[in-house]
Amino acid sequence: MIKMGKIQSILEYIVIILLILEFNTPFSQYGIFAKIIYYIPIISIFLLLLLKGKKIQMKFWHLLLFLGSIIPFLNVQYGVESTYIRLFMLFLPLSILYFSNYEEERNVILYKYTNVILIICCVSLFFYIIGSTLNLISPTAYVPVFWGEQRIYPTYFYLYFEAQNSFFLGNEYIRNCGIFNEAPMYNMALCIALAIELFLREKKRKIVLCILGVTIITTFSTTGQIFLCFLIFCAMWNAKNKKHKFLKFMLLTLMLLVIPFVINWILQDKVSSSSGEGSVSARSYDIQKCIQIGLDNLFFGKSLLSEQNPNHNYGFSNSLFALFADGGLYVLALYLSGLLFIPLYNMTRKKFFKESIVLLLYFYLFSITVSHFRYLTLLFVAYGISMCINYRQYGK
């Protein structure tokens, strides 16, 4: 007979694998795959709650959050009601309940996330090196993908996609996109895995950290390179080797001097490249447009999930301002609570300190990557909110 612990672990892996596939990958666009990716995570989290049986506890805040999710539903465009219900009235409330009731094991599902991302890393590095870089093998198929427009992606056994090129230091490179529609999405998934591995896991796996770091570099993402510089600084700052305090001081001083120059150099190279200049100007214009739309519809936004409208022409460069435009201050407050305000409050109380760092890093990545209506983002929003409505407080 299968033990409950095994069933729980299997269900958590199912949730994580499908959340990753839903995080803007080609798989989420095709028929039966899309239905599996959209609905099985909800069923799996519900089953995880059933495993708790009578131990499931609900508080007033759970009911209040669910009732509050009904208000934006009144402002949803015709045709996307089922998507809204799936995201905000099923997945998000169930995820909050999950983290609240599995509070002592809250990080276990995140460890599974890093395990799955690690496998994706190894596969993508293999095909990136022998396929995209050395051209020792050729793509096995070409896949039509709609990402802003209809595109054709070369793929290797549907395990790795060549989705983007980039200019770096004056040269054009194929970016490692893994199984994602573009490199920024892969970079965000990698950076979150790296943060979880570095800050939450008690026993650091150095080889995993190295693989994640190398893979981030191959995405040629400015965000990822800055993220790596920051984490290197944090790792050095938290070094516990007291025998080398002077060396640590010198290295930190050097890092403080070097990192700003490295970041500036990366940004200058990004802007000076032919694609980078257009990218920066387009991002700036998009943010301005989102702010204007948000100010015109301050409290409830223009309409949630409006990107599914064929005439939608904003919110393609970031999540923060796109969310403000679509959902106004009402919905934006939900995301800011889970990813920013609650973590900052917990840090001042010295509760959930490491978890709060991971949430703040997610907020940084979320702010500049289009990911606001993805399951993974809602999972982290739920992770943050659950810390405010726990039944037994604990922290590190």
UniProtKB/TrEMBL annotation:
InterPro entries according to UniProt: O-antigen_ligase-rel_domated (IPR007016)
UniProt keyword NADP, yes or no: no
Subcellular location: Membrane
Keywords assigned by UniProt, alphabetized: Membrane, Transmembrane, Transmembrane helix
Record's GO cellular component terms: membrane
Domain O-antigen ligase-related: 208-336
Keyword check for Signal: no
Entry membrane topology: Multi-pass membrane protein
Pfam assignment, any one: Wzy_C
TM helices/strands, residue ranges: 7-24, 30-51, 60-78, 84-101, 113-137, 157-174, 183-200, 206-234, 246-267, 320-345, 357-383
Protein known as: O-antigen ligase-related domain-containing protein
